[in-house]
Structure formats: C-alpha cells, structure tokens
Amino acid sequence: MHQTVRDLPKPGAPRKITGKALRFIVLAALRGTLNSAAEMVHHLKAVEGIDVGETCVLDALRREGISSRRLVWLREPTKKQQ
Description:
mainly alpha
C-alpha cells in the first residue's frame, strides 16, 4: 500500500470542543444568551463537563466564523442602550 498524505497522522492535540458543545456555544453566541467567553467556559464546565479556557472557546468560535466584533452587530440593543 502506498503511503499518501491521507495516511499520515494528524499533528497536534485533538479538539476539546466538538459536536454538541460546539453547536451550543455557536448558537449561544449568535442568540446572545451567553455574552462572554467566561460565561461559555462556566457553562461548559458545569453542564458538559469540559474543562477549557477562554482562549479555547474564542478559537473555536473563530474557526466557525464568529468573532467578538461580529457579535456586537448581530445583537439587538437593550432597553438601556435604546
């Protein structure tokens, strides 16, 4: 069998935030239910049992195409802001 690039092992550690947890934080970020990476970290530790840091959450969101600047434009202004 010929060894190709597909056969080589993947470099780096496996992702900690995948599947259901990744979908949850993406939707929470877009809907505005969790407003910061610290809130997402707390939720992941409490509910999902995943021990991650804020940078890991922000990197996962960036890989999904969501940046902190973009979230500001997607949310509706609060009554206090209006």
